[in-house]
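Deliverable D5.2: sample structural annotation.
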Amino acid sequence: MPADLQSFADTFSSNTATETHGGAISTQGPLALSLFGAAFSNNSAAGQGSSGAADADGGAVAVEGCSLLALRQSRLVGNMAAGCGGGVVARGCDVVSVDGSVLQGGCG
């Protein structure tokens, strides 16, 4: 049975992943991740990704193999990744849903 992770109106700011993906949140496997009214700002994935180079993905959020990634009324602003997805990267997820959210000023 998949695990679930929910966040309601939480703030994730100035977090850094130095050796992996996802500056604030990183998950692998059949997880249902739901973010409601969350704020992500100035997070970064600056470390080495799977290639060994400085290519970590998902400055704020990195999910892989999830059953669900839902962003509702959330703000991802000014997040950075050395690789792909300054704000968010989702790989191999069954469902990715974004509603009423802002993804702005990310780099990656």
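Annotation notes: The first strand starts at residue 4 and ends at 8. The chain has no helices and 14 strands.
The annotation will be released with the project's public dataset once the embargo ends.
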